[in-house]
Design a protein that fits this description.
Radius of gyration: 21 Å
Structural class: mainly alpha
Number of helices: 20
Shape: globular
Strand content: under 5%
Mean pLDDT: 91
Helix content: over 70%
Largest sheet: 2 strands, antiparallel
Strand order of the largest sheet: 1-2
Number of strands: 2
Low-confidence stretches: 264-269, 458-464
Length: about 475
């Protein structure tokens, strides 16, 4: 007999909230930009898969769409927007900017994430065209609003390329196309996650920014990690809102049928997934960025502005929406590679970011450097763990733990980039715990609490 567990309502809210809180904090600590945002995207998708008791294969697709959806928002610049919060004259303008950007992040992230539920039931061409139209909307939003700075939330004196309008139009194009092409039951789920994501993202970023307002008024206190407090709040509220959407969707027939999908992984060709993830990782982390640098004869940076034709091509070629399309095309052709994309490639960027700090002078184009060696070694270990656990009972829980503790491991290693941080002889206990190592301690405690929630047997067991 198959045993099924029913999770209480609070679990649907608390588990995703804790997961995204930790993932969002780690994103700002061990891997920025859209690739860093893959961490909370993977974590919240894993929570949803556990709570809805999805088979491993369905969960693997959901995780891929989770890293795409939440990663997309990482394209937005918001450092200067948060800077407005430190000045009384601009605090409300900064709050408007963070609220809008958080809402756009949650809207597009929730829609793309929920699209992963229907990977097997929606025609392939619908997925491809949905992403192509989303990218078209992003380009249109760039050219109509962001590039001309019609509504601008950064510093005009030191302008940065904004993309919130591009992502907003991309979300609207995506939703409009899906409304026409998929069933009303499927679209209902996607729209629900999009709207709840918009609510949680707007509240999370808007309210979280007030930690920086408080910090600007309390400059002489021991606790100074106001930016991290903002990230934790953003992740907490966005995760809780997506958890509410999961709770509201738990009895939908279109999701109940997903439990009937076989959870086993076929043995034939299973090693191909390791080759696929290696090629895909080299493509998105190495080949495309370096090719675009050659094309434009300049450094490719995150959130780069447009300009001439070559610069426009480069901007979109390295945009995370194109990475998302590559992920989708890959799992359409190699569905068994989904876990490797969702877990291994999420970790891989944290390793790239970590060892870049250890070897700042490394030639990132060359494969014959210590930077490349350590990235390859650590990523291979995670890939091997994913390969092993995805075929075992309780695979979702085990892979969740692999992601949590591999990211925590990157965070711990980062402490040694600057060994002077361990010079604590002249610091009090409170300065050590509440000041210098607060974030690291918070990560460890949160990871342990999340592990407990993931492994906790809750609810009433029934047999069917």
């Amino acid at each position: 007999m198959e045993t099924q567990r029913f999770y209480p309502k609070w679990m649907f809210v608390v588990l995703p909230a804790f997961a995204m809180m930790l993932g969002w904090g780690l994103r700002g600590h061990i891997g920025g930009g859209p690739f860093g945002a893959m961490i909370p995207g993977a974590m919240v998708a894993l929570c949803m898969a556990l709570l809805l008791e999805l088979p491993s294969t369905v969960a693997s697709y959901l995780v891929v769409f989770g890293v795409i959806g939440i990663g997309l928002g990482g394209e937005m610049t918001y450092g200067q927007t948060l800077g407005f919060l430190r000045t009384p004259d601009t605090v409300w303008w900064g709050t408007a900017g963070t609220t809008l950007k958080g809402a756009v992040w949650g809207l597009l992230g929730g829609a793309v994430l929920a699209l992963g539920f229907f990977f097997r039931s929606i025609p392939r061409k619908v997925f491809v065209w949905a992403f192509i139209l989303m990218i078209a909307g992003i380009v249109l939003g760039f050219k109509l609003i962001n590039d001309p700075m019609l509504l601008y939330f950064s510093d005009p004196a030191k302008p940065r390329a904004e993309s919130w309008a591009g992502l907003l139009l991309g979300a609207l194009f995506l939703l409009f196309y899906l409304k026409l092409k998929i069933s009303s039951e499927q679209f209902k789920i996607i729209l629900r996650f999009a709207l709840w994501g918009m609510l949680g993202g707007g509240l999370g970023f808007g309210l979280g920014g007030f930690w920086l307002v408080l910090g600007s008024r309390l400059p002489d206190v021991i606790f100074t990690a106001w930016w991290k407090a903002m990230e934790f709040t953003f992740g907490l509220l966005l995760g809780a809102s997506l958890g509410c959407a999961t709770w509201l969707s738990r009895k939908e027939p279109v999701l109940q049928t997903l439990k009937e999908v076989s959870g086993s992984v076929e043995e034939g060709g299973k090693r191909a997934e390791l080759v696929v993830v290696l090629i895909l990782g080299l493509l998105i982390y190495w080949l495309i960025p370096n090719a675009m640098e050659w094309l434009t004869n300049s450094d490719i940076i995150n959130k780069m502005p447009g300009g001439n034709i070559r610069e426009e091509i480069a901007r979109m070629a390295v945009h995370y929406s194109v990475v998302g399309l590559l992920f989708v095309l890959t799992i359409l052709r190699f569905p068994k590679a989904a876990w490797q994309i969702g877990i291994t490639l999420t970790f891989s960027h944290t390793a790239i970011d970590l060892f870049r700090d250890f070897y700042p002078e490394a030639n990132l184009v060359s494969a014959f450097t210590m930077h490349f060696l350590w990235v390859l070694l650590t990523t291979s270990i995670v890939a091997a763990l994913v390969f092993y656990f995805e075929r075992r009972n309780g695979s979702i829980q085990h892979l969740f733990l692999v992601l949590i503790w591999s990211c925590i491991g990157s965070s711990v290693l980062r402490m040694f980039v600057h060994p002077g941080n361990f010079n604590v002889a002249d610091l009090s206990f409170f300065q050590i715990v509440c000041g210098r190592f607060f974030v690291d301690i918070f990560f460890a405690v949160s990871a342990i609490a999340l592990m407990f929630l993931v492994l906790k047997k809750t609810g009433t067991e029934i047999h069917k």
